[in-house]
Amino acid sequence: MEMETKVTVHDAMTSNVITADPGISVAEAASIMTEKKVGSIIVKSNSEPEGLITESDIIRKVVSRDLRASEVTVGEVMTRNLISIEPDRELSEAARLMAKNSIRRLPVVRDGALVGILTSSDVMMVAPELTEILVENARIEENRVQLPENERSVPGVCEICGNFEEYLEEYDGKYICEECKEDLEGE
C-alpha cells in the first residue's frame, strides 16, 4: 500500500512574514502593508506573535470612526487571542480551523515563535481540493450572520471565469469575481 504524502502547513505557508511592533502607529502599519503589498501584519514585540492587524481592522476601527491613523497604535486596534497552528500539522486541519473560526489567515508558530503565516489563498493554491472546506463554511457562516451586502464576500473560484479570487460576491445566485460582476452589470 502506498503511503499517501500528507500536505502540511509548512508546505503551503509563507515564511517571510511581515511583522511590526505593537507600538507603531496605524498609519505606519498601513504604509508597510502598501509597500509590501500585504493585507495584514503580524504584531509581535519579541518572537511571540501577540496579534494581527488587517486592512479591514484599520477601516473598521480607525477610518470609520474618523480617528487619526498617526495617533492610534497598532496595539490598540489589533486582533488579539490569535488562533495559530504548528507547521507540521496537516493542511486540511488548518483549512478546517480557518473555516470554523471564519478567518483567512493563520499565524504558524513553533515553540512559541512565529515561523510563518498561512492564508486561505495559500491553502487553495497548494491544495485546491480543500477549497470546498473553506468556501462551504464561509457560506454557512455568511447565511447565519447577515453581513451588510458589501461585506458578503467569500474566497473561492469564480463561477464564470474560473479564476481563484480572495473575494467573490453573490450575484444572481452565483459566486463571481468583481470583474465578471462589473461585466454583467455593464451589459
UniProtKB/TrEMBL annotation:
Segments spanning the bilayer are: none
User: What's the protein name?
Assistant: Inosine-5'-monophosphate dehydrogenase related protein V
Where does the ACP-type MB domain lie? 153-187
Q: Which SMART domains match?
A: CBS (SM00116)
What are the UniProt keywords, alphabetically?
CBS domain, Iron, Metal-binding, Zinc
> Under the GO molecular function aspect, what terms does this record hold?
metal ion binding
Give residues annotated as binding Zn(2+). 158, 161, 177, 180
Which Pfam families does this chain map to? CBS
Looking at the record, the residues that make up the CBS domain are 13-70, 78-133
Instruction: List positions binding Fe cation.
Output: 158, 161, 177, 180
Q: Does the keyword NADP apply?
A: no
Tell me where the signal peptide lies. Answer: none
